[in-house]
Amino acid sequence: MAFFLGVDREARRSYGFDEVAIVPGRVTIDPVDVDVTTKIGKVQMEIPFMASAMDGVVDVNFAAKFSKLGGTAVLNLDGINTRYENPKDAYNRIIKAPPAKATQILQEVYREPVKPKLIAERIKQMKKLKARTVVSTIPQNAEKMAGVVQEAGADIFVIQGTVLSTRHISAKGPSLDLKKLIKKLKIPVILGNCVDYKTALDLMDTGCIGILVGIGPGSACTTRGVLGIGVPQITATVDCAAARDYYHKKTGKYVSVITDGGMTKGGDICKAFVAGADAVMFGNAFVRAKESPGRGHHWGMAMPHHYLPRGTRIYVGTTGSIEEILYGPARTDDGTQNFVDALRTCMGSVGAKNIKELQLAELIIAPDIKSEGKLYQQAQRVGMCR
Description:
Blueprint: E1 2-6, E2 9-12, E3 20-22, E4 38-40, E5 43-45, E6 49-51, H1 60-68, E7 72-76, H2 87-96, H3 102-109, H4 116-128, E8 134-137, H5 139-152, E9 156-160, H6 178-184, E10 189-194, H7 197-204, E11 210-213, H8 223-227, H9 233-251, E12 256-260, H10 266-274, E13 279-282, H11 284-287, E14 297-299, E15 313-315, H12 322-327, H13 339-350, H14 355-358, E16 363-365, H15 375-380
Parallel strand pairs: 6-7, 6-13, 7-8, 8-9, 9-10, 10-11, 11-12, 12-13
Antiparallel strand pairs: 1-2, 3-16, 4-5, 14-15
């Protein structure tokens, strides 16, 4: 449904996680009987969760632990881990930096160039630890890194920019030909980020196995504030999922939709799947894990594909292990832990045996769903009302 902002200026209403709710089903299923597995291309995942390619979240050891628990963590190839032989020293410099010197130290740490030999080394370390080897770079570096990534044996190569399109115009010369690069590679590729139907179709037509959906919803990303660009995640996911279904019907090829960012609680994750996601990617929850290399810190320069103020650093604290965040038992009452059981319980409540059936559950527009009847929780700042 379209609305008018003024004379002849039409706009479409769009929705985020806090504006919708999932309708329970007529039939319910025991949560232990539902199937939460998903596939991205030929890669099978026991749980449909991916950890974002953020330096403060994922290093080699984190990726191994996350894989062991059934998910997939994405290693940032443009960050600390490929600039330093011993990245722990760089992490410690950032973590221990006093606020007054944080920007200066971040700039110094990221001034060190990325080294191709370390790209190969990190991938081999991940493989040795039996981690799913999923690695990410920005479009500007994709062509020069692709060969090294393939030769080292990565499972999936992610090319991720704040906004990615197949038709980039620049006076500097020809832009990256995504279709040509993907055809040349023997390893599968995920592309992102996008938020609309037509761009999703364009990206799917390159031969990728998945697309990342989301521009600016991440907790440490300021794209929406700085550039004014973005689409709320429910509408973005619905639109891109519609493109996926059309593309599958037209070509027979299924390209996974991965909702990326904006999810802080189990309810957000469940809504992303009902909106059409095949998997979800987020970082805020996992930067809080005691195993995260950032030890509870977000910092802007660790995410080169986002427009963040240079040297941004935010301390969010730690709230348990990766296992507690994924599988519980929850030590908090605000929905930020035990995501797998939250997903299973939601699926059981709507009568969905698997992720594909969950995508068919009903969503309603419900902007007061979080605040209705929560007066006492709001006053006491407990549960979801903190």
